[in-house]
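Exercise: predict the fold of this chain.
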Amino acid sequence: MDNYAGFWIRTGAYLIDSILLTFVMLIILFVMGGAIGLASDPGGPSDAAAGVGVVIMYLLIFGGQWLYFALMESSEKQATLGKMAVGIIVTDEHGGRLSFGRATGRYFGKILSGLIMYIGYIMVAFTDRKQGLHDMLASTLVVHGRPGDVAADPAVFS
């Protein structure tokens, strides 16, 4: 298999996803910010209620990002909207669709990839199968193509 998606196309897909998610997050922040503002009003509920609102807001954002990536990459499309836009999909090492659990592991592996000065992401540019640390941890590949078009990776069987 020689259709691995490289660093730059994956970066482009991530930028598209980031723009979309930022737009959604801004809407959530606007709605939640208004609710927190009402809760902080001297005539309104206590500051504790406003604090709970802030925690809920962050949980919605974090949980929303996790669900977006995990659900999209484990769906029949095998890709987020950004990946679809650039024509790449995420597969397991046999070219198959990811389970939700594997997609979740890949998502949380991205946190580790970023924590080590983004080296886990930069690895995509230098590894034979264009895998980042999070891909290696979750045994996934990112390839050019559409769902169902990907053949099994011969490197897995050698």
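Check your answer against the key: The two ends are 13 Å apart (CA to CA).
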